[in-house]
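Morning. Coffee machine broken again, so started the prediction first thing and wrote up yesterday's gels while waiting. Chain of 170 residues, entered below exactly as on the submission form.
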Amino acid sequence: MKRRLMACLVLGGMLIAPYSGMADDEQESKTSESPGILHKIIMYIPNRVLDVFDIVRLRVRVGPGFAVDARATKVASVFVGSYATAYVGLPGPRNRPLPKLPVGLESQNGVQASVVDATVTGGIGPDYGPAEIGVGVQALIIGVDVGVEPMEILDLLAGFFFIDLTKDDL
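Came back before lunch.
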């Protein structure tokens, strides 16, 4: 049974503000609760569709710049160049519950090799997955960014059994 606490903040004998809150043990259980089974059933099909889109990144970029990048996980990745573009296409892994739009603005400038990152990004960055394998090229005004995130394949398969490995289900 939930128990609500009512109290008043009193300073120097003067009533300052009422306080309403839950006991500490109730607050902990409230923050750790996951969505109910009904929510999971209703969102089952939308979450599986989003999981499929999370697997592949395939974007065309339009805007000035010259850059190249290759990645085979975050640790084995390299980027050199500069671009400021608009993109359209599959954005790749969401890395969060809300879906990403298939259009947006992005910029990246600098050099990055493995975990040493001296780049500056703007707009909605590429937001690569931790195990993503892919390449990107920006040549003058046109660019492309393609990749596959193997972890999202596992997330899709586990999702069929209501298991969310990447914690990105709605």
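The first helix runs from residue 24 to 32. Going to sketch it on the whiteboard this afternoon.
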